[in-house]
Design brief:
Length: 146
C-alpha cells in the first residue's frame, strides 16, 4: 500500500486538471470529488443531487455526506472534494478566486489546499498562483483523538 501522502497527492493530481479545464471553458465549475477505494482504485464521485444546476452548498453537502458514509463503511481510504471559491484577505479585505481541494485520508490528517487563479486577458485561459495548504476544516474520516 502506498503512503498516505502519496495517495493524497494522487487525488490532488486527479482533481486539479479538471478544475483547470472547466475554468478555461466555462469560467467556473460545480463542486466535484474523487475517492481512493479500499482496493486502491481512484474514481470520480457523483453527488446524489437530482437538479441539473444544483445550489453549490447543496452539492458540497451531498459530496461530504456521501464520502463520509463510504469512509464509515470502510469502502474508501482517501478522498478529495474540489470547489471554486473566493478567498478574502482578513487584513486588506481583498478577494481572489481560488480552487479549494479538501483532502483527507484514513491514516492522515485532513488538509485543505487553495490554489489562487486569475483569468488571463483576451481569453487566454487561467493562470494558477502558488498553492497554499491549511488544516482541513471538514474531515471525511473520523480520526481518533490522541
Amino acid at each position: 500500500m502506498a503512503e498516505p501522502t502519496d495517495e493524497i497527492q494522487e487525488i490532488l493530481n486527479f482533481l486539479l486538471p479538471y478544475a483547470e479545464r472547466m475554468l478555461n471553458k466555462h469560467g467556473e465549475f460545480y463542486p466535484y470529488a474523487a475517492a481512493l477505494g479500499s482496493d486502491g482504485e481512484l474514481n470520480a464521485v457523483a453527488t446524489d443531487v437530482d437538479d441539473d444546476s444544483p445550489d453549490v452548498s447543496e452539492a458540497l453537502l451531498a459530496l461530504h455526506v456521501g464520502l463520509r458514509e463510504r469512509a464509515a463503511e470502510g469502502a474508501i481510504r482517501a478522498s478529495g472534494i474540489a470547489a471554486d471559491v473566493t478567498l478574502t484577505d482578513p487584513d486588506s479585505g481583498e478577494t481572489t478566486d481560488a480552487v479549494q481541494v479538501e483532502l483527507d485520508h484514513a491514516d492522515a490528517d485532513a488538509v485543505d489546499i487553495f490554489v489562487p487563479y486569475e483569468t488571463e486577458s483576451a481569453g487566454e485561459g487561467i493562470k494558477f498562483g502558488e498553492l497554499v495548504a491549511a488544516e482541513g476544516r471538514e474531515p471525511v474520516f473520523a480520526h481518533a483523538e490522541s
